[in-house]
Amino acid sequence: MGSTDGYTVGFQHSPQIKTLKLFDESPYNSKTENPGSRANLEDQCEQVSLASKCESGISGIDNGQDTHMFKNGLIRVHEEDKMYGIIKNKSVSSLSSCGLHTEVEAIHKKDYSGVMCQAKLQSFCTYARAMEQNFRGGANMKYAWYGASKNELNNILLHGFGHSMNIGVYGGGICLSPADYPIGSFQSSVADEDGLRHLLVCHVLLGRTEIVQPNSGQSNPSSEKFDSGVDNLACPKKYVVWSTRVNTHILPEYIVSFRSSSGLEGYQRISHPLRRPSSNFIPFPALIKALSKFLPPDAVKTMAKHYGDHKEKKMTRLKLIQRLRNIAGDKLLFVVIKSYMDKV
């Protein structure tokens, strides 16, 4: 690898991605028209009236709060719970089909029993009812994933979405991924100090959708006929909820904590075969500085701490590289390294 104070990474080709359905059952115990069939969660949710959900609220699984991973307002979902098995099995299998080997460490459910939380829930349900009565075609409520750092997810659970979150090629809104495509949000997650990545499972009110082009600069619906955006009408992999509606049209429900035995390079080999940079060396300080332009401050702080531990002989170079790959992901690392080498 050359120098003992630099970073190198290689990429290989892999088979085509195969995506799977995330959920097969509804948490609300609704009945399907064909009892023998196994329906998608989205279909079963449509069979539960919005009114019944709002009247009952989204309550906790039990009365014992377990918040060692996150701040107050979450209740741990136990392994014997029906939804734990559904989320675990389908999310892990879907990520595995994309080349990511993950294990679910824990699942927590947002507690909406407090007065302010009930107000947020009722606001979401009010918009859902209004959209159901709208001539455009209904609320089009879906489950979706949202990935970010643990600190950002804490802030969302406590205060709601901020307008500056998840800024990317769809900078005018919050970008989520469909229930059957968790990899889309897994790429946006950031490994915490324990190596865990965290994803929100949210209810989303999409209403009538329109195609939004990347880097278009669009920040609102193109007309009153539409409510939200997608990257593809037939088979969307991105839902775009405009920044003015993120706290009325998105309702966080679960947070899933994953431990990955492999970085994002497996997925990148499948979806975007990449060339190896012409040189295999970049100093760690230069790498961290370049990554700081793309990653949240807490992720950069964690990388700097790992590098400090490496310099003090508390962490091996190989371990440091593994940590950086877990935090940044190989696609971003490749782009940063290539850009650095082009300048050099």
Q: Give the N-terminus to C-terminus distance in angstroms.
A: 18 Å
What characterizes the major β-sheet?
Answer: 9 strands, mixed
Radius of gyration: 21 Å
Query: So what's the overall shape?
Result: globular
Q: Give the strand order of the largest sheet, numbering strands 1, 2, ... along the chain.
A: 1-2-9-5-3-4-8-7-6
The unreliable regions are 7-39, 43-51, 58-67, 265-280
Round the mean pLDDT to the nearest integer and report it.
Answer: 75
Output the helix-strand order.
HHEHEHEHEHEEEEHEHHHHH
Question: Can you put this structure into words, describing what you see?
Answer:
35% of the residues lie in helices and 17% in strands. A hairpin with an 8-residue loop joins strand 7 (228-230) and strand 8 (239-242). A nine-stranded mixed sheet has the order 1-2-9-5-3-4-8-7-6, with helices on both faces. It is of the alpha+beta class and 344 residues long.
Summarize the structure.
Its main location: nucleus. With 344 residues, the protein is an alpha+beta fold.
Layout of strands and helices, then pairs:
Layout: H1 41-46, H2 50-56, E1 74-77, H3 82-97, E2 102-110, H4 115-132, E3 141-148, H5 150-159, E4 173-178, H6 183-186, E5 196-205, E6 209-211, E7 228-230, E8 239-242, H7 246-249, E9 250-260, H8 265-271, H9 284-291, H10 297-311, H11 317-328, H12 330-343
Parallel strand pairs: 6-7
Antiparallel strand pairs: 1-2, 2-9, 3-4, 3-5, 4-8, 5-9, 7-8
